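Dear colleague,

As promised, here are the two records you asked about, laid out in our usual form so they can be pasted straight into your sheet.

NAME FIELD: protein one
SEQUENCE, THEN STRUCTURE:
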Amino acid sequence: MALVMLALNGKGLGHLTRISIVSQALGSLGERPVIFSEGNYNLRGLTQFPARRIPSLWASPEVIRRQVSDDLSAEALTSLPAMVVEDTHPNPIQLPDSIRRVLLVRPTSFSYLVNLNRRHASTYAAFLLCDSSGSPSWPYDEAQTAQVQSWRGWHGVGPVYRTPSEDDIREVRERYRITEDQPICVFSMGGGGVDPSDTKGQDIVKFLKIAFEVAAVVKPSGSQARLLFVKGPYFPRRIPVPPQFEVIPDEEQMPALLKLARGAVIRAGFNTAWECAAGGTPFIPLTGTTYAEPVQERIAGFASMGLIAASAEQLWYDEAWRERHRRAAASVASRFPGTPDPARLQNLIWGSDPQHG
């Protein structure tokens, strides 16, 4: 049966991460997804399923959009019922009415969800919100939660995030020669790097300031600690990284690197925060410029569960706090393991007949 997955956004890895995790869950039940994805990524390194790169649809002329639409439709209609699962935002192409469409939704601001439901409720048969009430990243208050749950076709299926395999951890440990006597602190602004609206680079200035402050505590004179600065694909070349940091241009296995870290300083995106929590890695967050991202609410949620360090000293040296953090992180990761329940996911995507013939 044809199951087409369309990963849209082009910035960072979040869209492709969610599509890949959902595909793996469905693959465990015998589904055979085919992935179409925007962005310049090594698709083979991120998914085990057939994958094809497509141009940015919002930036493409109409003739390219029609061609992509024809390709998607031809793939989906090789069997019936025809299905396309999309992430993250509604796309600017038309698909035949005979194709059932489902949208994976990142937990964005509540106003964005309201607008999404108002404008696109007739387009999608289901909206799968990649988070769940009660998780530390759930950013909606009680009234907002009740409203989302009242909308037709909306379901929480998350949180959805990557976790590293033992092979991933071993490979990253060997590649960076990480040892117990040289603990690492990871600094990362996330796969999406810099928001385009931050034209003056204020996020980078703030991030570097926090990085300096934490580095001074983590690696005083004589310390064997290592400071690994992951620039990511959108970090501006014109801005130098100070010499006390070991620069990593990009890292596809960030969940493994974060799990190996004693602590981290991150831009508090959804995926990176969860990768820290699941890895048992305490972190200090940056609240940066975002598009429809409830960062403050997300940070408050993680902090309320004891997952965010109040200072660099606590992050690196307070062993009693670190043990409490370890227990809290293990509890949260156990409740929210990062992968949707495959059977429920299959049922929500295909509708009332999960066997779809």
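NAME FIELD: protein two
SEQUENCE, THEN STRUCTURE:
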Amino acid sequence: MLRLTNDDAEARADDRWEHGSDFHWPVEDGDGRFPWGAGTVTLWGSGRDALRALIAQGRERLGWRRLYCPSFYCQDVVAALAREIALVVYAESPLRPARVLPRTTADEVLLVVNVYGRRPRPELPGDGVVIEDHTHDPWSDWAFSSRADYAVVSLRKTLPVPDGGALWSPRSLELPEERAPTAEHAQACLDRLSAMVLKAHYLQGHGVSKDAFRSLAVAGERAIATGRETSGVSPLTRARLAALPTTSWREARARNRAVLCTALGDVRGVTVLDAPFAVTLIFDGDGASERRNRARAALADARVYATVLWPLEAPVVAGIPAEHVDLARRVLTLHCDFRYTADDMLRVAERVRRLCTGS
């Protein structure tokens, strides 16, 4: 084993917050609990692959012609959906969920997204098809008792797996048939898995450079996010899913969020948004976007790598309200991964308070 100085050890501890490779590879078994229960589920290369496969089936077999999606949503996903069907945006943000969802006709689809895991469960209107995206909180009461036609989650957003999306129908409707991973997707999974394993070795003090896993993680994530073909899931994720300790991991994330929120307290010029997915900072007041950007850069210099969910400056479909674009410029998300300790969270909170206050 490589001998570490105190500075080296601290750097490795801090590097756990790096977005894109924060999920280093754990080997831990449990009783995987998922909202589809013992029902039928199909697994895909990603959440967007699951959505694309479903929409393609609906368009070809059921005559679906239009999909309504929320304005505050990942534009990479929106771009993938736009390849399959005509899109219309409806106004909704994490701070202002739509009180009345669009009423749809039988050949239209409504996509409802539980952004940050904090959206109140809505009444489902209209005669059209409803798809729910539970990626940010797959274990909510809403996900387990969904009455939507279809539901989807992106597995790699909350679980330490290299890929994966799950699609099921709470109403037991027909699902698209699974398929094998594409060659492009298989390479992306290999890159991400290699990054996860290398990062685990790095954090343990072995002779692995940070760049060795960072470049692989970034390349793998980008390939999964932008893959042209709809792909099936990797054999590794399929094999591991049922044995993951999802309940204890979710409880650990909740404990970490509570510690972080309490330690943050009141931060001048910042609203702290606690949600099941993560803790999100919303910068308020004059120059909020610039202060967010400076704080993000300063945190990165301190090896705390926050995430922007999601940039909306280059929308795929017109109709995103200006206030939602502005909100996206002011948000910064701090992960509360289940492998972090309370001391980790306290250290992050101290740096956030110091740097945000001085930004």
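A couple of things worth noting about protein two: The radius of gyration is 20 Å. The CA atoms of residues 163 and 210 lie 22 Å apart.

Best,
R.
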